[in-house]
Amino acid sequence: MKLKTALMGAVGGFAMLAGAQAAMAESHGGLTVGYFLEWPMPFEYAKVEGMYDEALGTTVNWVSFDTGTAMSAAMASGDVQLSVSQGVPPFVVATSAGQDLQVLDVAVSYSDNDNCVVREDLEIDKDSAGELAGKKVAVPLGTAAHYGFLKQMNHFGVDISGMEVVDMAPPDGAAAIAQGSVDMACGWGGSLRRMKEHGNVLLTGAEKEDLGILVFDVTSGPSGWVAENSDMVAKFLAVTAEANAMWADEANHAKMLPVIAKDAGMDEDATMATISTFIFPTVEEQLSAKWLGGGAQEFMKGVADVFVEAGSIDAALDSYTENVNTGPLQAASGM
User: For residue 171, which phi and psi values (nearest 5 degrees)?
Assistant: First the structure.
């Protein structure tokens, strides 16, 4: 299995590109932010309604990605300054490879919305997971789904070195399991829903959390750019927090849901089904010990160590504390 070769190929240019980040970002007008389609979140209401543009006093350009590793590459090249809802594993892969990125907030927690699905005709469940040995699986390498896959296989005692692991973005993995060309596929959001039409998960979100498989995304950005634009970042995070607070009040669902659904490229029923499994921590919660006050840093170290053990990355950092910057979020809480 060529996990390491594929994953290192995806991040190999990060360290080289990172030095040019700030300078290249200067040449772009306004602010460019990465996000995911089929991943409905309250910020999309603020995005469509122009709340970010108004608060920041500049045009915010939005570009969609299929994976968090692609977000890292775009931030390394300076094409994107901030990424909303980047998975922690791709963030860890990039920073472990030398890319100077920082976590700026906890965007969403979603243990039930990121998982692996086994093709239904195999009739494999958690009691017969050992039968996955030697099987072919579609995994978006360096992502939260990849981390969850590794942890689940370790839990079930399945040797991944004997499996055929294929690097596929979730939409491709969903198509592959539908066609029967893979035995298992891992992903999130709309892709995970489509995967479930052709198979079953091994563990529920709660069961994964019991194993220490936390699943959460962050807003991230290049350290140099964030340092030079901390006021802009604080305003951006404040708008995100405002949108989350709006969604927390069910009275706003009727007006927000259609806007979020359209922007996510989903129908309203699928959007509600997905977003209902999401947790959007308040700023106060994000700054607590559970999250950015220490928990997230410890979790990132754990993710990195698992990837090293699996041979997916060369080495982990001694600590990921310097890769978390709560300054802009603290400033946002006072806005």
Answer: -60, -35
